[in-house]
Structure formats: structure tokens, C-alpha cells
Amino acid sequence: MKVIPVPCLSDNYAYVLVDEEAGHVSVVDPVEPSKVIPVVESTKLELKTILTTHHHADHAGGNSNMLKAFPGLTVYGGDSARIPGVTNELSDGDEFKLGSLSVRAIQTYGHTTSSICYYIQDSSDKVVFSGDTLFVGGCGRLFEGSAQDMHTSLNKKLAALPKETKVYAGHEYTRANLRFALTVEPNNEALKDKAQRCGGQQCTMPSTIAEELATNPFMRVDKPDIQKAAGATDPVEVLAAVRRMKDNF
Fold first, then answer.
1. Active site residue 225
2. What pTM was estimated for this model as a whole?
3. 59 belongs to the catalytic site
4. Structure letter (DSSP) for residue 79
5. Which of 58, 79, 122, 149 is catalytic?
6. Residue 67 to residue 72: CA distance in whole angstroms
7. Buried b / exposed e along 14-34 (16+ C-beta atoms within 10 A)
8. Alpha-carbon distances of 208 from 36, 126, 158, rounded to whole Å
9. Smaller CB count within 10 Å for the chain: N or C?
10. Catalytic one among 24, 55, 111, 151?
11. How wide is the angle at C-alpha 50 spanned by C-alphas 74 and 105, nearest 5°?
12. What is the pLDDT of residues 72-124, one digit of tens each?
């Protein structure tokens, strides 16, 4: 399995997922087909599938034009009423195959109620496409869910994935996220190292679940420094407080 990030719009990522063993490709959130299609064509493999992480236009807005260019694609998503072109609506825990790749849908409420993260494995690698739920060093704004929802999504579901799982997020927000994270956990050496490492990178994808557990304040709500910054100890209250702080950062 190979993952090719495709920068779109001002700071979005689409991804081209290459299944070399089966000889075909899938695309994740192909919001700008004019940028995604040349990458697909460069693989010289057949495009079969769209994986949509949630219904927002900067993620699902390219589906209709992708279907015009490639009729008959299978389109996965968590909300067929709001995601254009969905052929296969997903629920939490649904499993399916994309060629040689094994996929599990993880329903991740918080940012939207349409959010699905895609955990994908082959014989040697593990990745998760986390949309606007989990960012490198951050999480999505709480538009359609609660802090409890996001806590469950991040700290019960995604945190339970194998630590080596590579994280491919929906936006390049990393540098701003890490600057904020340092304000709530300034003594975190792993965070300092990551901020320095990412400072000069144009594309900071992928991270890993292990790195997020070590550096992402929204996945560290049990840590004393973050609880102190939040003025709370209950993990959901801590997440809510840190999210409000980040909203105003």
C-alpha cells in the first residue's frame, strides 16, 4: 500500500491510496478533481473507489465531478443524505475489502455526525485517514457533536489503534496546532521535538498514533500540565476547555 498526499484548496489534503498488489487505486476526499485526477493517472492503475470522511464541502465537494470523470465508482461515506454520490453508507465497525486492503470504518462523532475515519491494513502497514476528527497535534472544531463525542472518538476509538498506525489528516494545520499545544504543555520534550521537526516541512503527513498520544493535547487530557491549563481534571471537561482555548488561539 502506498499513500500519496494531494494538497487541495488552501490547506486540505486529498489522498490517493495505491493498492499495488491488486492493481487499483482509491481516493480519499478528492475535493479538487483537477489536482487529484493527474495523480491517479500517473499510477497507471484503475480508480475504483472514493472514501469520504465527512459531508463538508471541502471534503465531499469533489465527488460529483469525480463521478462524471469516472462513472461507476463505489463511494463510501457515513451520511448518504449529505455526501454526494454515496453508494455504500457506513456504520461504526463496518469492515470491507479494497482489493488486497482491509478497511474498518470508525464512526467518529464530534466534528460532524457524518464523520468516518478509515483504518486500513495490508500485510505490512497500517494507516488511518482521520478527516477533520484527528489532526496532527489537534482535533476538529465541535460543530455537530459534544466534547464527550470527541473524547470518545479520539481517546477511546482512535487511541486504541496500533501505535504504529500512520495518521493522514484532512488539513495541514500542524504548525499552528503544535504552537498552541506548547502553550498548554510547555515542558513536553516530545512535543518540542515534533514542533521543531515539523517547522520546516511543507507536508507533515503522516504522523502516527504513538506520536499523537505523546504530543497532541486533545489525546493527553489525563496529563497534569494540560489539566492545570484547563482548570479541570475530568477528561471531557479538560477536552472542552482546551478546545475553547484553541478556538480563541
1. no
2. 0.97
3. yes
4. -
5. 58
6. 7
7. bbbbbbeebebbbbbbbbbbe
8. 24, 10, 11
9. C
10. 111
11. 90
12. 999 999 999 999 999 999 999 999 999 999 999 999 999 999 999 999 999 99
